[in-house]
Specification:
elongated; alpha/beta; about 450 residues
Length: about 450
């Protein structure tokens, strides 16, 4: 293809999706069918039909007239005369912007109406509308790509999200009778969870509390004050999933760079002192070199994806998650941390964070993955004698607490009192657990190895 052809303007007849004609026969058949049997309005709506998919306004307004009149008539008794009066009334008061079908044509439609053909006609109309939206989407892609203001991250994410909306979902797709879920309940009641439906946390007591680990569709919030070990804990969860169990995991770091994260992963997995890695003196310790050599293959092969771009928006995250779900079978996303994400525009910060929290929860449900969000706590713990955090200490906490399925708060006494009798210990305070018990789980903090471990592992 020549440059001239590529740079040429689009054909004027195809610059808008409106050039594509609908199926006039199908639209007239459907307009007639709903006059003859008004309950088709509800039946077709449940199947996902939207009257906005009509391309001929006059037939669409017949649908609207039947919809408005049906509460006053028994099914099948709305005759064309009533529809005609309603259309004329709307035309007279300016509600209807187009010329209504004349009485003779309405009578003709009613006479030859066949309600049994309505599903076929609705399907034809819907397919034409999907094709039109797909064409519109293509034009939007071209427009964005040719724009001087093209933003690879924002625009690609936006068109991917728009593509998801090309096909409307049927309301019937999500509606089931309670008996339909009974078999699944009985199976779960007699079958212990496996890694197919749970993601191990890396901590025995935490797994036991959560009946095997994290579940798909959950949003988990891990809150802590600065320097308490949020990133270390988050990386530990990522290592438990990806390195130890081969579960595809995405770690979004908005604070630490990839090299720092890599140092921490290697330190924790190989039990090599983090400061030795930073100083470049690991080679002086033969046993450390051996441990490093032993763990390197597992770390290298782990399906752990790291992104350290400090600018993270929900559209960008959705695009990345969608891609990794399709290409790598992504099951776990960890975000470090919530307050550093680019929140949507809102009248104040609390509303913006609330919207961000809601979208993260919807992301988990939509893709059937687990989303773990690390979050900063306010100064509440410092104002209490025991310094222990509470769920209400979450900054902009309202909706974060509400949206989360599980809230875990990190606490280390020795972070406040160096001579504490609990030096080297950490509490995982499970302050909220939707559908399960809450508890405080004690673990060991090994800062020199950039990790938390079960107390039973001691200093090993």
């Amino acid at each position: 293809m020549s440059d001239e052809m590529w740079d040429a303007p689009l054909d004027d007849d195809t610059t808008s999706p409106t050039w594509m004609e609908g199926d006039a026969d199908a639209e007239s058949i459907l307009a007639a069918a709903v006059m003859a049997r008004t309950d088709l309005i509800d039946d077709l709506a449940v199947d996902g039909f939207d009257p906005a998919d009509f391309t001929i306004d006059r037939y669409r307004w017949v649908w609207f007239a039947v919809e408005a009149l049906r509460t006053s008539f028994n099914p099948g008794t709305i005759r064309w005369e009533a529809v005609h009066r309603q259309l004329q009334a709307w035309k007279a008061d300016g509600t209807m912007p187009t010329t209504p079908l004349p009485l003779a044509e309405l009578s003709h439609l009613y006479t030859y109406a066949d309600p049994s053909t309505a599903p076929w006609a609705a399907d034809r109309i819907a397919k034409k509308a999907i094709a039109a939206r797909l064409i519109a989407h293509g034009h939007d892609c071209i427009s964005r790509g040719r724009s001087e203001a093209f933003d690879a991250d924002a625009d690609v994410a936006a068109v991917q999200a728009a593509l998801d909306g090309v096909v409307r979902q049927s309301a019937a797709d999500e509606t089931i009778q309670v008996g339909d879920v009974l078999e699944g309940v009985l199976i779960r009641a007699t079958t212990p969870p496996t890694m197919d439906d749970r993601i191990p946390t890396g901590f025995i007591d935490l797994d036991n509390l959560l009946t095997g680990g994290w579940a798909a569709g959950q949003m988990i919030v891990v809150g802590a004050r600065p320097a308490m070990g949020k990133t270390t804990f988050g990386l530990g969860l990522a290592r438990a999933a990806a390195v130890r169990n081969g579960i595809p995991t995405l770690f979004e770091s908005l604070e630490m760079g990839r090299d720092e994260l890599g140092n921490s992963v290697v330190s924790a997995e190989a039990r090599v002192a983090l400061h030795h890695i930073k100083l470049g003196i690991v080679g002086d310790d033969t046993s450390a070199v051996q441990r490093l050599a032993k763990r390197t293959p597992a770390i290298k092969a782990a399906p752990l994806f790291i992104n350290d771009n400090a600018f993270l928006t929900m559209p960008v995250l959705r695009a990345r998650v969608r891609h990794l779900v399709r290409t790598a079978g992504l099951r776990l996303v960890i975000i470090d941390y919530l307050q550093l994400m680019q929140a949507p525009k809102a009248e104040n910060r609390q509303v913006a964070v609330s919207e961000l929290s809601r979208q993260l929860k919807l992301l988990a449900k939509e893709f059937g993955i687990t989303v773990i969000v690390l979050a900063q706590l306010n100064r509440g713990p410092e104002q209490r004698t025991d310094k222990k955090p509470m769920v209400s200490d979450l900054r902009e906490s309202g909706s974060i607490e509400q949206d989360a399925d599980i809230v875990i708060l990190l606490h280390r006494e020795d972070a406040y009192e160096k001579e504490s009798s609990r030096a080297g210990e950490a509490d995982f305070i499970v302050g909220k657990h939707r559908g399960g018990p809450t508890a405080t789980i004690t673990a060991a903090f090994q800062g020199h190895y950039a990790r938390f471990v079960d107390m039973s592992m001691g200093v090993g």
